[in-house]
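Field notebook, page 382. I keep forgetting to write these up properly, so this time I am using the form the group agreed on. The chain and the ligand, pyridoxal-5'-phosphate, are recorded exactly as supplied. Prediction of the bound pose follows.
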Amino acid sequence: MLDDLRRELEALAARGRKRSLRVISARRGPWVKVEGRWLLNLSSNDYLGLSTEISSERILAVLEEFGSGAGAARLLSGNHLYYAELEETLQELYGRPALVFSSGYLANLGVLSGLCSRKDVIFADKLVHASLIDGLRLSGATFFRYPHRDLSALEDLLRKHRGRYRRAIILTESIFSMDGDFPDLPALVELKRRYEALLVVDEAHAVGVFGERGLGLAEEMGVLSEIDVLIGTFGKALGSYGAFVVAEEVVRAYLINRARAFIFTTALPPVVVAASLVGLREAAASSRRRKKVRDLARAFRESLGKTSGGLADQVPILPVIVGGDRETLALSERLFAAGFLAPAIRPPTVPEGTARLRLSLSASMEWEDLRPLVEILRESCD
Ligand SMILES: Cc1ncc(COP(=O)(O)O)c(C=O)c1O
């Protein structure tokens, strides 16, 4: 059996698809030390640069008071007071109840498999994150995947199939993690109303970056109160770890009772939840950092001649689609040699033939840091 596993790994390596772990031995702002060299990290989702800024004194005090582990699931004895404080703060910001999950992956599994079962239907954008795909599969619901951001194709599917099912969910990301683009959220709100569906939006890559208070793209587009279930994570722009779901009280109570990914896992350590609270407050107040990372994104696109106007230029995720796996690996290695960490993203993370570098920017970077990268990309991608 082990030989079988070995052969499979060798086949992956032969196709340029084998994944392996790289050790980060030190971090300083957007810089990481790898194999003894400091590199600018273009592969983190720390868009506001908060992950290295949350004060250790505060965290040490929590560690002393509450210890390092929660010791049990939230429904047993793991529901420490930092959860209550974090959920209250989320409710104040979003204007609706919130439920904290142990990670974005678990939140997505929990929401979809908790809310849906065999009698239900889920209409999902073709490019939604793997955690949402796993959630919809686990739910047992029938699902249809519409072409990326194609809302007329979605409407065709809704018209044809919605009537045969009990509950229906329209599922999308707001900022798509691998492409940095986004759907027309107000138009999705119209569709969910017309076809009596719940609109579930994963805002993992928009929280902190979009919206006046960094609540996400729905806030930016003025439809926050229309998103039935909004999922955000603490592990990206908020600089910590974990995730949250914002929804009506009845949905929150239902998830506490039905979402197995919420029920059957150990609660987050108090230090982590306390750090999330600091990150959330910091991000809500950080319009300066938000502006900085969005300006950097626009300048970066301008210098590559890739602007399309408006909000799209301000997304701090820039895909450089190369196509082939080996060519993408070669570009990634070239950047590595020049002092940039930008791992190759290959299928199945992205569709066949669209291997890419996914460059993500942070408010902790300076334009001067990025300039040499622009030069290399200009040369390589022409
Ligand atoms: C769109 C999206 N949703 C959910 C997740 C999972 O979140 P977490 O890392 O907190 O498990 C990720 C990435 O990690 C993501 O990109």
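OBSERVATIONS:
- Residues 103-105, 108, 129, 131, 173, 177, 202, 204-205, 233, 235, 243 surround pyridoxal-5'-phosphate (CB under 6 Å).
- The domain at 23-48+286-381 is CATH 3.90.1150.10 (Aspartate Aminotransferase, domain 1).
FOLLOW-UP: compare against the apo run.
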